[in-house]
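Researcher: Next entry in the queue.
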Amino acid sequence: MTTLTTKQATAPFDKPRAARGGRRFPVGKSFVSLILIAIAAATIFPLIWLVLTSLRQQNTVFGGPFIPTTITFDAYPKAWMSTNFGLHFLNSLWITSATVAGVVVFAALAGYAFAKLRFPFKNVIYVVLLATLMMPSTSLIIPLYLQLKTIGLLNTQAGLLVLYVSSSAPFAMFLMRAFFETLPDELVQAARIDGAGEFTIFWRVVLPLARPGVATVIIFQFLSTWNEFIYANTVLQNTDELPLQPVLFGLVGQYATDWPTLTAGLTMSIVPVILVYVWMQRQFVAGMTLGAVKS
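Model: Structure for this entry, 295 residues:
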């Protein structure tokens, strides 16, 4: 009669036990997933409320169910006509596009200079530019207002562009400098040995490799400029030159507000932001994760 060893006797039971252990419910991952789902739901809730409110009747905004029983699109043409939406939409598009272009140009050039060039007082200038980020924008309204009045740019879109570009360039420069520093210096040195000038190196060698950084700056700047309200409402007194956000804020009444009309205008105003993000999503994600894989 053959005698089984302890290992041989328990072998048939080891495999099911290992299999049962491999199929354990991942409590940790499930908990993290629940937290992420809750954060996503809390984040998207205002957007859902915005769209649903624009599709409901005025008397059911706060007294009716969350999902309207009767859907109507009457608020959209009303918002378009009452705010002269087309004119102010074009104003916002022009101001935002010009601001993004100016910020990208200045930030890319300055970021390359601070990352790859040597010049006197380089660190001092960089720290001074970063120090401007610590000042709240609201504290600068009065000095900037007086400066624009002195140089004759008050109540003009050009003056508003000057404010937007000058106030946004330091942060964008900080981002672009970080992206340029991830690129190896050997590329720049090899181009210099081949006889390329600094602008040629910047335009043909360094900038194409920094497209994720440029996309990140474009998305951040487009979003902040498109939704900016305080500077635009302070600098521009001519209603026809106002961008979209101050005009939509005018729909908020002192005693009563037409919420379907207001939310319809806001829903139409967020379409360009969504399109820009979807268009540059891949580059944006690559830019946000570029620093994490730096060796």
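Model: The domain at 79-293 is CATH 1.10.3720.10 (MetI-like fold).
Researcher: Noted, moving on.
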